[in-house]
Amino acid sequence: MTPADQAFDQLMRLAGRPRPDFVRIADEPPALNTRFHAEAAAAAALAAVGTLAAELWTMRSGQAQEVAVSPREAGAALLSFALQVFEDSSRAPPLRPDDAGGGGRGTPAMGFFETKDRRHVFLHPSFPSSAAKLHRLLGSPADTAAVAAAAMTWTAMDLENAIAEAGVCGAMVRTAEEWDQSEQGRILAARPLVEVVKIAEGPPMPLPAAGDAPLSGLRVLDLTRVLAGPTCGRTLAQHGADVLYIASPNLPATEFFISDVGHGKLSAWLDLPAELARLKELVAEADVFSQGYRLGSLERMGLGPLDLARLRPGIVYTSINAYGHEGPWSGRPGWEQLAQTVTGMADIHGAAFGGAGPRLQPAAVADYTTGFLAAFGTMVALQRRALYGGSYMVRVSLAQTAMWLRALGLRPVEALAATQPASPAEIDGWRMDSPSGFGPVRHLRPPVQMSLTPARWTRPTTPLGAHPAAWPA
């Protein structure tokens, strides 16, 4: 059994069903130069999404279909933001924006730094306000060498604790064993990879009758940010959901990521809490509420899972965060790089390349895969709602996904030499051309093949706030 088949079987057991016979995951050589089965995990998550899409379509139409996924194409999807090609460079969003959102440009405090106890931390300046806090904590160093010198005045654990207390982003590099023995690691190990929990009773809610896609007629409110959460909404959109992305005009964003994960969505501004009443009006007509804000942020505005289950019986409330939804780390902000840092992935990856220190994966393996898993869990909940009724909570996290990737086993170090990177022609075969709010763009297509209801985006990606905060007629 291939690692992709193994991972897919795990997801099917989580959904409470045997492996279906209409799903095929190709057996292909890896394209990413990593010891982790990153492409296999992404392919399994996409196959699980395709399985639920096929089953939902059967519920709507009585028709069965086949699903196929290429792990190599799934691996390219883990780098989809970097594989966009814009025709008009004057309208194209910058790859590394000055606001430091995800790229870190404009501040030297980004990356791995050694500490005085000969360990390492990863510093992530994130957006401008948190970057400023991180610089103040380090003594406002002016360049990378000064950041490195400042980090050498701390032990790794003391610096991690100070970063957490300041509410900014950074973490100590851990081995896999250290993470697994930590309180947060033990909490995550005791929870499912994707949690789907009924939180309120209610009558069954059949799928809408009209439409030509598995999720046609279903409405998704997307209140997430880079990259996992928006990937969930984009994945639901490719199977027909009406996805309305809500952004705040007061929060910074990274347009190069927005253009990548905005396919298939409407995008509107809402200033919370000032426009909270309008958001609740949208919730009252939604089927899914997907959010990626820090623990407690939305609850303080009356937007927690139970609040919305009362406001909109039958809601599916999907939450995505960095370190899990319970335990001492549940409220910490984090990103892809930090999930790799704390769970042992960076340590293992670095050791495979000369042992000169921790290294990140050659793709956003936790972010995108977590987004696919969130969409899978959301579709499981929608299916259960249609069959049995009720409101549901779905929870995933970057760290949980990273632990799952580790648990799928490691490629031998000697096998890395046999990695076959995707060629430009191969990547171009996975691309499609679309209009967009950033001008014509050539970008990756949805990486799952459906025989009757092809995955597709019917709305072009746009800059934030391009539409009114309203559901389509």
Question: How is this structure best described in words?
Answer:
The strands form 4 sheets. The protein has a 7-stranded mixed β-sheet with strand order 7-13-12-11-8-9-10, sandwiched between helices. A 3-stranded mixed β-sheet has the order 1-2-16. The chain has a 3-stranded antiparallel β-sheet with strand order 3-15-14. It contains 17 helices and 16 strands. It has helices at residues 3-15, 38-61, 71-77, 128-137, 144-151, 156-166, 176-181, 183-189, 228-237, 255-261, 276-283, 305-311, 336-343, 345-351, 365-388, 398-407, 424-429, and strands at residues 23-25, 67-69, 85-86, 111-114, 120-124, 169-172, 195-200, 219-223, 242-247, 265-269, 288-291, 316-321, 391-397, 431-434, 441-444, 449-450. β9 (242-247), α10 and β10 form a beta-alpha-beta unit. The protein is globular, with a radius of gyration of 21 Å.
Shape: globular
> Which sheet architecture does the biggest sheet show?
7 strands, mixed
Q: What low-confidence regions span 5 or more consecutive residues with pLDDT below 50? A: 97-105
Cα-to-Cα separation, first versus last residue: 47 Å
Helical fraction? 25-40%
Mean pLDDT: 94
What is the CA-atom radius of gyration, in angstroms?
Answer: 21 Å
* Beta-strand fraction estimate: 5-15%
Question: How many H/I helical runs?
Answer: 17
How are strands sequenced across the largest beta sheet?
7-13-12-11-8-9-10
Structural class of the secondary structure composition? alpha/beta
Count of distinct strands: 16
